[in-house]
Design brief:
- This protein is of the alpha+beta class.
- It has one domain: SH3 type barrels.
- A hairpin with a 2-residue loop joins strand 4 and strand 5.
- It starts with 5 loop residues before the first strand and ends in a 5-residue tail after the last helix.
Length: about 110
């Protein structure tokens, strides 16, 4: 069972550019059949410096970028085993999600 901020290999078609996804939904919804995930895009393909909306991380020696604009959901059973956790980066991830949802730019 995955927890918030666990990283899984991308089960989708574009694994080369998006090698991983990170679970962002609260553990409150752990019983749900689906998981809200955000892609972790290869930093080279993303092409932007580390920022509040696109923080950079290292997962399995690969430089990746959180891309909250591509948030999606996947069946829990489609996710493979956990390969890492970004729990120690929770502030940066939550800030990126907050920036996505913020009303500050009305």
């Amino acid at each position: 069972m995955s927890d918030q901020l666990d990283v899984h290999r991308n089960p989708g078609r574009n694994k080369r550019v998006v090698p991983f996804v990170v679970v962002v939904q609260s553990n409150r919804f752990r019983g749900s059949a689906r998981r809200a995930v955000v892609p972790l895009v290869e930093a080279e393909a993303f092409g932007q410096a580390d920022s509040d909306i696109g923080p950079h991380f290292t997962v399995e020696d690969r430089q990746v970028v959180l891309d909250p604009l591509q948030i999606t959901n996947l069946p829990r059973d489609a996710l493979g085993p956990v390969v890492a956790s970004l729990a120690n980066e929770d502030t940066r991830i939550i800030n990126a999600m907050d920036a996505l949802l913020s009303r500050a730019w009305r």
